[in-house]
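Researcher: Here's the sequence for the chain we discussed earlier.
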Amino acid sequence: MPRLFTGDRLVIASHNQGKVEEISALLAPFAIRALAAAALGIPEPEETGDSFEANAALKAGLAATASGLPALADDSGLVVPALGGAPGIYSSRWAGARKDFGAAMTRVQHELGTKDRGARFVAVLALAWPDGDSDLFRGEVAGTLVWPPRGERGFGYDPTFVPEGGAETFGEMEPAAKHKISHRARAFAKLVEACFRGR
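Model: Thanks. This is the structure I predict for it:
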């Protein structure tokens, strides 16, 4: 049974400012103060897991131990079946040390060529406590990849991804609209149901 969160401070175990802002916005209605791991001087760990779940748990656990506070980590990425699931857990690494997602999107486009353009975004949230306890929540959203990229909003691969039933890319959508349907929002809804009941 997932553990109820009863505190008012939560470390966001990410050094990706876009993710920190998105997760902070999702936490705002629950009167929870989000603290970024980078602002607390917590280093970014090497993601050595072989799944979204393993990497999210690794990041959350290290941040909870380092801060002495509950920590929430996200591991997410773009899964393209025609590319054998790539970039998948390596989505961030495809952007290189400079986090150049323009280059990462170009690589996806180049490797995809004329193959099926179906894709999905996956997000796994891990909520960890300093005592080593943790829970995992997974969300997915299916869609299609478009080229060239469209929109200046969002981050990562958002400008090339149109969610199923939509016309705009995640890069074109208003943040409030994206937060209702995104992979991260779906994982977050499961987290809220399990751990934030009654807040």
